[in-house]
Amino acid sequence: MIKAIFWDNDGVLVDTESLYYQASAETLQARGIELTPAAFAEISLRQGESVFDLAAHLTPVETDQLRLQRNARYSELLQQRSTVIAGVEETLRALHGRVRMAIVTSSRRDHFELIHAASGLLGYFDFVLTREDYRQSKPHPEPYLSALARSGLVADQCLAIEDSERGLTAACRAGLRCLAIPAPLAPLGHFSAAFRILKSVREVPGVIFGRS
After folding, report:
1. 10 Å Cβ neighbour count for 139?
2. How many Å separate Cα 32 from the centre of its chain?
3. Model confidence over 89-138: pLDDT tens digits?
4. How many domains does the chain have?
5. Tell me, what DSSP letter sits at residue 10?
6. I need a surface site. Which of 6, 106, 165, 211 has the fewest CB within 10 A?
7. 77, burial (CB in 10 Å: exposed 0-12, middle 13-18, buried 19+)
8. Quick check: 155 and 148 in contact, CB under 8 A?
9. Residue range of the domain that includes 109
10. Which helix (H) or strand (E) element contains residue 22?
11. Which of 49, 80, 111 is the last residue in one of the domains?
């Protein structure tokens, strides 16, 4: 029986990955480096690595400066446009009170707070883990192992929901079953390890309660 759902944030609850790509691409372009959507999907969404590896010729100090510039630009974009994905709120409403729910995200807390400043979603969740709450990010299992420890439950009692291969890998390495809703930036990724591959977040209650 599923007692808890651990939700990824970006690309699952909110449509922000295109903004993160935009901020990263603009920052690299200013240094003459092209970041294509395909490269972003491979490096960030699949491998869980930094797109600034493309700037290997820069010094560590220069790379850190680029990262700061990207983060600032991403914050600007989030304040202009951060959209809850269609079907998310009705799905959370249908699940609320029937299973425990948490968000397990690789987002920094300052970005997370900008994203959810007006989303209206946080009241559905029992707790949130952001990048500052663990040492190793996805695809390492630590984020989900931390969520299991926080919940007091075992992996068989919980389910993760992810949109990227790195998130799926993290969930599987933590022993969790994972529902995958592939990101628009990576629709042809390798999701064979998922418990189920869904087309829409609206399918989640049916899977959880055995109606599909």
Report:
1. 21
2. 28
3. 999 999 999 999 999 999 999 999 999 998 999 999 999 999 999 999 99
4. 2
5. B
6. 211
7. middle
8. yes
9. 4-15+83-208
10. helix 17-29
11. 80
